[in-house]
Amino acid sequence: MVSISLHNVGLDYPLYGAYDYSLKRRLLGHLIRDPGEMRIIRAVDNVTIEAETGARIGLAGPNGSGKSTLLRLIAGVYPPSSGSIAVRGNVVPLLGLNAGVNLDFVAEDNIALLLRISGRKPTRAMIEEIWAFTELEARMQRVPLRMFSSGMLMRVLFATATAFPADILLLDEWLSVVDENFAEKAQERLLNLVSQAAIVIIASHDQPLLRRTCTRIINLDHGRIASTVTVTSPAAHALELREKRA
Amino acid sequence: MHHTSDNPRRPSVLHIFKIYYPDLFGGTLTVIRDICASLKDAFASAVLVCSQSPEKREIVVDDVPVERVRSFGNLLSLPAAPTYPWRLWRKIAAHDLLALHAPFPLADLVFAFGFGRKRPLVVHWHADIVTHAGLRWFVEPLMRRTLQRAKAIVVSDHVLVDNTPLLREFEDKCHVVPFGIDTSGYDWPKIEPHHVNDRGRLVLACGRLVPYKGFDVLVRAAAAHNFEVWIIGEGTERPRLVQLIEELGLAERVRLLGSVNDCERIKLMCLADVFVMPSVTNAETFGLVQLEAMAAGRPVVNTALDTAVPRVARHGMEAITVPPGDAEMLGEAIDMLIRDPERRRRMGLAARNRALTRYSATAFKQGMETVYRDAVAAPCEQRSASAERPQAPGWLDSVRIAATLAWSDMRHRYVRSLLGPFWMSLQMAIVVAVLGSVIGQMSNADVLSRLPMLALSMTAWTFLNSVVLDATTALQNSASLIRDRALPPVIFLLQCTFRQGLFALHNACVPLVLWLILSPHDLSHALAALPGLLLFVVCTFALSLVLGAMATRYRDLKPIIESTLMLAFLASPVIWSSDMINHRSTVMRLNPLTHLFAVWREPLVGGQVDPVSIVYVLVALVLLVIASMLTLVHLRKAAFWI
Fold first, then answer.
1. Same domain, B61 and B152
2. Which of A198, B191, B492, B557 could be stapled to B474 by a disulfide with Cβ–Cβ 3.0 to 4.6 Å?
3. pLDDT digits (tens, 9 = 90+) for B613-642
4. ipTM value of the model?
């Protein structure tokens, strides 16, 4: 049932300079016949991707090659300038963990709010479960996030974002957690989340990581697909087994 | 609700639909009646429907209590029954199981708001919405929510699940229970199933005279051939069919019989040579009448719809299936059967056999009983877990997220300071007191009696002012949610209206107290002001949507909007009123805000609203709605601007 289909998708990304934000300038420009050319870059160019249930796609490429933009296109943030996009299934974009966080609120309110934003009705049990994963003290739930150290904040946000499985998971860089004790646990949770999703698309610079997790790696260059590599041994399962044995 | 039961309490089922006997006859109603009748030992049934007849509200049809909610005609194929949602909500608690007969968006609305969450719900999917498909974007999220919380979805054939995208999402909940027919009524000793009328040219059709039944196609088919057509049924298409029959000069051979009772209908079915179901759209999902004709041992001519219709009576076995809407093919198929008595006899026997074995009333009863029992017995937890699956955000989810965000803003304001909750209101009270005394100095009118209106106007103005100002920065402040969580930008503009609405409700305690103390409070005036107030809020939202999007695209608009709002405040009768200044100046008359305030202020003081004001506000609203639509289209690009 879950599928992603991009057909000859292109995206012209307008780069607004200081003057382009001015209505006066724009109107005056029309009057004095100076249309003030707006710079447009072709961020995604003629990309065709088909993904069915089970697809694990890695997006690789140098900075500015259009990886994140492509993820946002799939998530529906940007409308495509040309071509067509059809996405079936519930998309969970994990592009940035900080979105929607209000540092003035206490931790549990933030968790509840983030859950609601992703369309779920938070219950006490859900929040407790998420909190248990963070391994923080229970009384910290009542503390505003502003008081948290960056590591603690990361734990809360990570635990909340990865609490529920998704049909289609979009990851901009592997969510890495710096805290050493937590990193392994987080890794396991993310792998678990990836294994449950029907389709996963990861944008990353880390080629070994992509080889480990993906079945197909798409190399992007200046918004175009430079090459597509099919990874022969889907090692994700092996990795999972290793995790379990450990 | 009284239960006429002797045995220990049977679980009660509430059937929810738009219409019931005796207002109408038709397939869906037959199904509801059959369910009520066949399950009467196991379940106590009740029916809640709408009715246009002003007569008795509570009637009993075939031992089943039926409550009929008054409806004032039909709007977009839906009964205009404003009290139906309320009655439904009241009745939900009294029953153990709810059986919704879809499509019926009025009931979906009730379930979408979360009423009746504690009662198990079974949805009988009779048809998809085919008419008014343009409103689908609005109705579909509601239907999806209903299906989400339903414990079981009953369809008459699996092909409906395959061909309905909405149902495919809930495939695991769908139960196929083919309709059944009690064939005993068709066992006429003198009319054997293989009995064939001598003349061999009577064609029968049956159904409400509505466009999707395709009777006009049948009439046109009759023109080219030499058979007789009798059509049973009544409906809005009648005048058009009569006209068509006359135009084609078929009055001799084509008869509209009107409504006919059950016994008579069965007799006609047994008399006919061929039964035709010429339906032209997928609104025809099963065709219960063709099953009746099959029980009477008649060969069928039906149409190749994407529904169960060509699967109940199969092409070449019990029926000849022709493309829908094709009068020529239909006429030829009928003619072929007319000319071939042997084939008619063979197909009639096959049809009767299929009705007896595949579509028996016993199987239907058992199927329904199992579904209902499982629905009543399943624990509540399981239901909530299955409803947990989040869906692609429809407009309903957008509104809910906006409300959540606004509510959290409101709570945040309460948390921030100890005085918090009262600070805003206190500020408002001070402003009103100072302004009131200043105005008292300027005019010699009675200041005290003006104070409540002054306070209320200030609250309303503060609402409008802050919504528009908030909207100009809302999208930039929520950039991360738009870009990283892919939330639709419109949520954050809606959030401004919701948030300021909550603040305004809070501030409203000042005018409320003043109103209670200082004026002869008349509740009916307050009620009369509500429509105007609603217009005010809707206009404010539309304005904020347009200006919010534009101010995000063109950053230099924000200072302009700010100064314009200040000017508008001074030029509008917010703190002063029209009778205080020189009679109705031009600026004041042209200022739309004057009228936007007038539509709710006038009724509140017991006056009549000037028709000019109403027209002015409605025109402004239409313009704003058009502008909002355009904005919504452009808002897709908002992620580039922030």
1. yes
2. B492
3. 889 899 999 999 999 999 988 888 888 888
4. 0.86
